Amino acid sequence: MSRPSDIVLTALAPAIWGSTYLITTEALPAGYPVTLAVLRALPAGVLLLALTRCLPPRDWLARSFLLGSLNFSVFWVLLFVAAYRLPGGVAATLGALQAMMVILMARGWLGTPIQSGAVAAAAVGAVGVALLLIGPEARLDPIGVAAGLGGAASMAAGTVLSRRWQPPVTALSFTAWQLTAGGLILLPIAVLVEPPLPPLSATNLAGLAWLGLVGAAATYALWFRGVARLEPAAVSMLGMMSPLTAVVLGWVWLGQSLSPVQFAGAAIVLGAVWAGQRANRPLASLPDGTSRAKAA
Length: 296
Known about the structure:
disordered C terminus, transmembrane helix, EmrE-like, AA-Vitamin_Transporters, transmembrane, ABC transporter permease
């Protein structure tokens, strides 16, 4: 497929992740963040394992659990801590710093050259997210800030390492390994720190089905497919579609109002995402086969 098609398919994942806040607040019981994370990851991972019939070989077990912890277990737990201790806008803005972290990690772990345009797009995108989400009542809690930064770093590391470690299997199988590993890591934590779930209603089950089948199995398969095909910094810029979608859903579904500043922030985010894709395009090769980056 062409690069624009890969970008659009990959962008669908964070755009759909933007529905997580709406589904969590409107369709799921409150006060069970780790348990709900387990129910989002583990059934989806087991289902994909059954569909693909592809278990990780022994030499991929450790990597699968490390990637599962970075992309799901650690990331989701820190995300919940940040969400509980910070206003949503502050937490999302800290998460938007992931794009900058990916640029730095890709340089160290993949040898990817740092493009000034990519750095500028990541910085402008974070400013756009802040304008979109941060209100005058925003407050900073040290633990919440640390959790927000830690969550962004965890997802950034998982994205870069998922590009570095590419198993000879489909994106569905790679997703299955990581979701299952991440769910298994979270399971004992949920049992130890949270009470049992109350009886679930039809709405609760529908919400879990959406988050598991669509918000985990389908979207992370698209995400890891994009990680394998696109530059890590380009993929991480697409993650800014998540807070944008969350705001649009709140506006359309919940009747929340948007200020002119928020509209400006949305436009800045879209512009930064577009600029990030252009800045992170692969450099053309010279006639002798070397890249322009190496020749420079």
